[in-house]
Predict the structure.
Amino acid sequence: GAVVSQHPSWVICKSGTSVKIECRSLDFQATTMFWYRQFPKQSLMLMATSNEGSKATYEQGVEKDKFLINHASLTLSTLTVTSAHPEDSSFYICSAAGTAKSTYTEAFFGQGTRLTVV
Amino acid sequence: ILNVEQSPQSLHVQEGDSTNFTCSFPSSNFYALHWYRWETAKSPEALFVMTLNGDEKKKGRISATLNTKEGYSYLYIKGSQPEDSATYLCAPGRNKLVFGAGTILRVKS
């Protein structure tokens, strides 16, 4: 399958600071990327869908000003958690779907980022 | 909001046992059903993408069936091995996926 790289794999930041998480498709062009969040002992919850060159579409209840998503190229999407607070501590993971090596019905995941806000 | 349910929540089996899990999803507006295996500290790995009612797919000792009319899919593992230990996730959808909570499988040697 295609390779998606997510960075960093873990980060600790101080309350009030912003954190940027990168998601890169290494061997295919990702026309669409998805950002998920996982709360403890719960499933992956879709936060937003980003399409290259356009604004992200956020799921209900997700603050777009809090979680800034940029998909500036076909291989890179970033999620910035702005003014992070302890309640933003979570596991964030991206997936990417494209038309090159992936089939149109398959999405490939990054490794995830464990964010801890202290 | 799609309601995707997986059962059991967790499963502990002995090496060599066969096991199966269930994924239930809304049968209306069905597009595809995805199964992923997620090992600790790794990326979720796609196992199957199933689209046709009655479809059955196989990958080594793992197989899956799909019933789109009643909205369920079964995942089977034959002769479980310790390396099968993982969380198994299902998700209906195209590539925008709504995940179930997963079934945690632990295989003891």
Observations:
- The radius of gyration of chain A is 13 Å.
